[in-house]
Specification:
This protein is of the alpha/beta class. The chain contains eleven helices and nine strands. The strands form two sheets. Strands 5-6-7-3-8-9 form a six-stranded mixed beta sheet, sandwiched between helices.
Length: 273
């Protein structure tokens, strides 16, 4: 999906780059010198950025740039070889039970992130049981309503849902613990263009209504600039530059690599012969 298709398909109530008024007690992120190494391979090196409470922050780059690795390090799924990660407005320590409750992740593939032999009800009930939260019935009903799914979806299996419905369930699972921070790992890339627009609109509305903080990874500049006010560009595990969505719209990027990504996001162009 190129920039033009997103621009025409996505019609959220808030525009790209709009940051809501954040209720007291919301949480941001501070990352300093993050380094992730797998068996001697440096997947992310000296990555630093800040995300304000209630802000939507994007990380973009080509496949293998390290952007998803950064998200996985934030939620404890990738080892941190160096660097510091803090929640701004919370004392939860990285990797702790409190951290896992406050920082939740929506994965890229809704086909693979939901257990095929569990109903939606059980998928949503599991994190509540793990964290010892009561009122499961009310929480599950509220989570489904928040993502636009009727109660009739509650006892279906993932194979009985469309791709967009599966991703809505994945969002509901991330939200059911009521975390202030969501990590979004290319949450629309496995969906077709029209469904991508629906899910982006949903995420934007949830952020504004709940005052959530987002960190979103994507290789599609059009998608991430719709949802995010600021972006960090990565290549080969390192930060290239940070820009605002307004900078990209005005083509004010400084780095050659960022300008190459902007050209690529315009899609196919026929060359005159």
């Amino acid at each position: 999906m190129n920039a033009g298709s997103v621009g025409s398909a996505v019609t959220a109530s808030t525009g790209a780059g709009e940051t809501p008024e954040v209720p007291a007690g919301r949480v941001g992120l501070a990352v300093r010198g993050l380094r992730v190494v797998y068996d001697g391979f440096v997947a992310a090196d000296d990555v630093s950025f800040d995300v304000q409470p209630g802000e939507s922050f994007g990380i973009v780059g080509e496949s293998g740039s390290g952007k998803s690795t950064v998200l996985r390090a934030l939620c404890g799924l990738a080892p941190r070889a160096a660097g510091e990660v803090h929640l701004v407005g919370s004392e939860a320590a990285p990797g702790s039970r409190a951290w896992r409750r406050q920082v939740q992740m929506v994965f890229q593939d809704p086909y693979g992130s939901l257990h095929p032999r569990q109903t939606v009800d059980r998928i949503l009930a599991e994190p509540l049981a793990i964290h010892g939260l009561r009122d499961a019935e009310a929480r599950i009903e509220r989570a489904l309503a928040d993502v636009g799914l009727a109660d009739g979806f509650r006892f279906r299996y993932p194979h009985q849902l469309s791709g967009g419905q599966r991703q809505r369930v994945a969002v509901a699972r991330a939200l059911i613990l009521e975390p202030p921070v969501l990590l979004l790992d290319e949450p629309t890339s496995a969906l077709d263009a029209s469904v991508q627009a629906e899910v982006l609109n949903l995420l934007d509305a949830l952020r504004v209504r709940r005052g959530l903080t987002y960190v979103m990874v994507s290789h599609d500049l059009a998608v991430v600039t719709h949802l995010c006010s600021r972006l960090m560009v990565m290549r080969a595990g390192r930060v290239v530059e940070q820009v605002t969505s307004g900078d990209l719209a005005a083509r004010r990027a400084q780095a050659d690599y960022t300008r190459e990504l902007m050209e690529a996001s315009l899609g196919f162009r026929r060359v005159a012969v």
